Amino acid sequence: MSAVRPPRRRFLAAAAALPLLIGTLGACGYGSQRQDGGGKATATGKKVDGLDSVKIGYFPNLTHATALVGDHEGIIQRELGGTKVKSTTFNAGPSEIEALNAGSIDIGWIGPSPAINGYVKTHGTGLRIVSGSASGGVKLVVNPEKIKSLDDVKGKKIATPQKGNTQDVAFLNWIAQRGWKVDPQSGKGDVSVVRTDNKVTPDAFKSGSVDGAWVPEPTASRLVAGGGKVLLDESTLWPDRKFVITNVIVSQKFLARHPDVVEAVLRGSVKTNAWIKSNPAKARASANAALGALAGKGLPPEILDPAWRSIRVTDDPLASTLDAEARHAVKAGLLSEPDLRGVYDLTLLNKVLKAEGRPTVDAAGLGAK
Q1: Which terminus of the chain is less hemmed in, N or C, by CB atoms within 10 Å?
Q2: Shortest CA distance to 234 belongs to which of 211, 210, 212, 215?
């Protein structure tokens, strides 16, 4: 990946380019509502800011480990006292952004591409990124009988989860760095980029419909369990092997009205990440139990263990890498140059970090004024 440059100062019809990057928001539902309100802890004690409940959203995915574990273990709920956590899960970023804009959720865990587009689509009025959550967990997995080296990727069919999603943009950028040409809309060119839902990618790989996939965990480890080989870990392409895969976002209206509630959720997020780092085995089991509760069954060890090892929870939103990912989308032809100034508001996160005796983090020049 190229070195990170200062944030952009232009906005060139970014909203017009959004359908190319995130698709039609209205095509997806709001997700699956958790009837029990999430974690093991119950809402007891004083309500934060007098609020009855806070609605959070996340994916049933290991890259959302902070939310999975924090909700399942009740860590977030305990920080909210009598304000009840109501959880909703989503399968795609656009539907979560739609839910945030509609007020169906207040706070969400989400990937960088939908966060960028959610901000741009509302001309900077819809959301703020208020914390980091996870880094890593993305790999290029291939059929070792067809692809033995990076050069062999040329001419092959490689799956990504969705046109313009975070992994799709990363793969297109990698292709361009190798000097190969691919049309970003059709996916046709020196490499055939096949946009395939993560749920069906393992079957497509098994049938030979695709020769490999640039995908997040646990899909990558599913492919490995099915005979695939990791050809490239995306983290090796980034400085210090760190790049944002999951952030915490909040509705700007909710942030303005209930900052104490947002701060409490961030305390829960920070404490969850600390617990995950201190208790990796217990945290892995907790995340899998949460997945089991949401999906009906957890992941087997041969998938769970390697997937978990490749993901790093982080409070730092790694803001410079989000700006780089936006530039990669522009370079790929999937996004007009956005003005991302103000996309971050890390005030409450840094307040929580200071109280925990931890170093504060910065917004790489993209913070709210």
Answers
A1: C
A2: 215
- The Cα–Cα gap between 266 and 161 comes to 29
- Residue 22 makes CB contacts below 8 A (sequence gap 6+) with 93, 94, 97, 113, 114, 117, 164, 165
**pLDDT the model gives residue 201:** 96
Residue type, 350: N
Mean pLDDT on 26-46: 56
pLDDT at 343: 97
Listing DSSP states for 127-175 in one string gives EEEEEEEEEE-EEEEE-TTT--SGGGGTTSEEEESSTTSHHHHHHHHHH
The confidence score (pLDDT) of residue 182 equals: 97
pLDDT at 258: 98
C-beta of residue 360 within 8 angstroms of C-beta of residue 270: no
Cis omega (within 30 of 0) for bond into 218: yes
Closest to 275 (Cα-Cα) out of 77, 111, 87, 65: 65
Give me 347's structure tokens.
């005030």
How much is the pLDDT for 25? 32
Q: What is the DSSP letter of 7?
A: P
Lowest mean pLDDT among 79-93, 230-244, 306-320, 327-341: 327-341
Buried b (16+ CB within 10 A) or exposed e, 256-277: eebbebbbbbbbbbbbbbebbe
**Rounded CA separation 103/270 (Å):** 24
Q: Which two tokens stand for residue 128?
A: 């703020």
| HEC secondary structure over 55-85 | EEEECCCHHHHHHHHHHHCCHHHHHHECCEE
**358-367: pLDDT as tens digits:** 999 999 999 9
Do 213 and 201 meet the contact criterion of CB atoms below 8 Å apart?
yes
In this prediction the pTM is 0.86
Across the chain, what does the average pLDDT equal?
Answer: 89
Strands 157-160 and 192-195: parallel
Q: Is the pLDDT score of 23 beyond 50?
A: no
Closest CA relative to residue 139, chosen from 236, 242, 230, 241: 230
d(CA 327, CA 338): 9
Helical H segments across 208-358, by residue range? 219-225, 252-257, 259-278, 280-295, 301-309, 319-332, 347-355
